[in-house]
Design goal:
about 300 residues; Alpha-Beta Plaits; three-stranded mixed beta sheet
Length: about 300
């Protein structure tokens, strides 16, 4: 837990640095593309602070307000973050199109290149550190962070190449195209960036709505369950599952024949133990419930 918090703090401070760097260089270079990057980093910084609170919440047990715990706060936070980014993308896209329609804008390509180099190196460095930590923590919040920092690194590389081209073209026969570099680059950035928050929204909303995992995951769990209960006199069974944040919930309902008799509650716990052992490795944070009944109505 402490390692995850440390990584999230590092990420938040990194985004603060990138926000100051981006907004400062955007004012210096008059580049909307760099300004967009700065605003993205500012949003990520604020969300990073919220992530630190969410990390503490998801580890707490249920209480009188949330009987089943706080796992849903992770996909909820990721959804809010993605929606804010999509809003910024829409506003920036409108500004870029307006600039194209009005002759583009001149920028200081030299300082823009300096920004791109610093931002690229910093982004890939943080992505590498976060990725190593996430291999040990398997945190959904860090997983999103790693994707964002990696994407930032590739984007800043593209930004640097575009500004380098603008620098090379200045004063040549291609000079008339230079004012269009920034708005065109801004549109390209938006088209590249928009797929990440869109996918985040789809995945996170799916978790909030408790959509079942992918078909192959369901098949794997079902096969493991069937092997675990082989030999147990079951008339019918239902295996239901959902992933919410970092937790994977699995409900196994076993309909027992009316002739089935148990001598001790421990007999049922032994069956639960077999199922738990069979599902080991399905997910690092598996939450398992096993219910027994004679009446199938109780499973609906």
């Amino acid at each position: 837990m402490q390692e995850e918090r440390t990584a999230l703090k590092l990420s938040a401070l990194g985004y603060l640095f990138m926000a100051v760097l981006g907004i400062g260089f955007a004012i210096l270079t008059r580049s909307d593309a760099i300004m967009l990057s700065g605003f993205f980093s500012l949003i990520a910084f604020v969300m990073g602070l919220l992530s630190l609170k969410v990390v503490d919440l998801v580890r707490q047990p249920g209480d009188q307000h949330f009987h089943f715990g706080y796992a849903h706060f992770e996909p909820f936070l990721n959804t809010i973050k993605a929606l804010i980014i999509l809003t910024v993308c829409a506003i920036s896209l409108a500004a870029a199109i307006d600039a194209l329609l009005h002759g583009g804008r001149r920028l200081d390509a030299g300082w823009a290149i300096v920004y791109a180099v610093v931002a690229t190196v910093f982004s890939f460095a943080v992505a590498t550190i976060q990725s190593r930590i996430n291999k040990r923590t398997e945190s959904p919040l860090l997983a999103v962070d790693v994707k964002n920092w990696t994407l930032d690194g590739f984007i800043n590389t593209g930004v640097g190449l575009a500004f380098l081209a603008a620098r090379v073209f200045t004063g040549t026969r291609w000079d008339s195209l230079v004012p269009y570099v920034d708005p065109v680059l801004l549109i390209v950035l938006i088209l590249v960036l928009i797929w990440v928050p869109l996918k985040t929204v789809l995945d996170s909303v799916g978790e909030l709505l408790q959509v079942a995992p992918m078909a192959e995951v369901q098949r794997d769990v079902q096969e493991r369950f069937d092997k675990a209960v082989a030999g147990v006199p079951i008339e019918k069974s239902y295996v239901r599952m959902v992933k919410i944040g970092r937790f994977f919930y699995c409900l196994c309902q076993l309909i027992m024949p009316s002739s089935y008799r148990i001598q001790r509650v421990k007999d049922l716990d032994e069956i639960r133990g077999r199922i738990a052992a069979g599902l080991e490795g399905v997910h690092p944070k598996l939450v398992l419930d096993v219910l027994f009944t004679e009446n199938e109505e109780w499973t609906k």
